[in-house]
Amino acid sequence: MLNIALFGPPGAGKGTQSDLLIERYNLVHISTGDILRNEISEKTELGLEAKNIIEKGSLVSDELIVQIIEKKMRTNTECNGFLFDGFPRTFVQAYILEGLLLKMHTSLLSLISIEVTDKECKKRLLIRGKTSGRSDDTEKVIDFRLIEYQNKTFPVLKFYEERGILEPIDGMGTINEIFEKVSNSIEKNLRKVLFNVVILGYPGSGRGTQAKKLAEKFNLIYISTGDMLQEEVNNKTEVGLAIKELMENGKLVPDEIVIQLIEKKIKLNKDASGFVFKGFPRTIIQAYILDGLLRKQNTSISCIIDLSVPVLQLVKRLAERGKTKQKRRYDIQTEAIVKRLEEHEKKSIPIMQYYQKEKKVFAVNGLGNKDDIFKEVLKHIEFAIKNAR
What is the C-alpha to C-alpha distance for residues 1 and 80, in angstroms, rounded to an integer? Predict the structure, then answer.
């Protein structure tokens, strides 16, 4: 998702730029003040709690604010992302936002800080005070608001600067000139966003074929755990010898080894546009592991393609593969094929349930010509790219 925090002192034109960004990128505006007022007017449970606090002259707690923000985010599922306006206001809230976005399997692309001198802000606000009749646009109040902004926002800006996602933007010029600077900053950062695809499906569904075609078309790194394990065995590495011994004894390769190999592959391809995973995750535990591996690289899964093929067709395909050089151990006998498919079904259901919560799963009919199937895959991939970038 495209999540942006927009900062700027009073008079910087933040409201105008917010409206333009929301329209261009199909974002939902997250303003804590607006959300609180809306919850109070609708007399929701959270709104009544906030109203009670405000009427007593107290500040609404961060705990309540984060609940209201999370509610707003979860009830707006058709947008491309969120524009945070006026949040986070403090160093503590910056950590809160990080945790909230992590919980929702997303992150902040950048914090855009529209920078305008105090002198210019004061000039703009005084003019606004004369034309709009706003009672708070007086010299004394403006000076106080500017000092408060500098004091409160400095630690927040420092937080995001250290994270490497602070984008200072010169706020001088026309509205369109500033918007162009802001948009260019967003587009620059979007180009850095990795696009990561997981290809799911039963053995024989054509996962490898489609994954390789995607890797070639979009300049993604193809990651097949089976291929990586076999490569280690063929190269007779220390890890490969351990893998070979496990396989010969009919044991599964532990996740610890798989994690090391995937992480090594990712680190060796730091300049890649993204990754396409085939054969991983195989279990719900590996789904959590993959999320963790990608999060470590400040990225996440962009899209999941689920190739659907009837069981009888899968058995037929695997039996035919058993007659070729690409055969697997379980391809030789029908009984072994059926057992393999049954084992896969038990493990794949929890994985699908896990990913469907994120609404990133696209089902594709895996029957037919490979190129025709790829055309269907592309429709979903292009849609996902548009939303991710």
Answer: 6
Quote the pTM value.
Answer: 0.62
Q: How many CB atoms lie within 10 A of CB 145?
A: 18
Fold topology of 195-388? Rossmann fold (3.40.50)
36 half-sphere exposure, CB direction, 13 A CA radius:
18
Q: How far apart are CA 207 and CA 308, in angstroms?
A: 10
**pLDDT digit string (tens) for 213-230?**
999 998 899 999 989 998
**Closest to 23 in 3D by CA, of 179, 171, 192, 185:** 179
Ranges 49-58, 240-249, 281-290, 338-347, most confident? 281-290
Homologous superfamily, domain 4-190: P-loop containing nucleotide triphosphate hydrolases (3.40.50.300)
Beta bridge partners of 365: 308
* Six-digit token string for 310: 């009837």
- What are the start and end residues of each CATH 3.40.50.300 domain in the chain? 4-190, 195-388
Query: Coil, strand or helix: which one is 113?
Result: strand
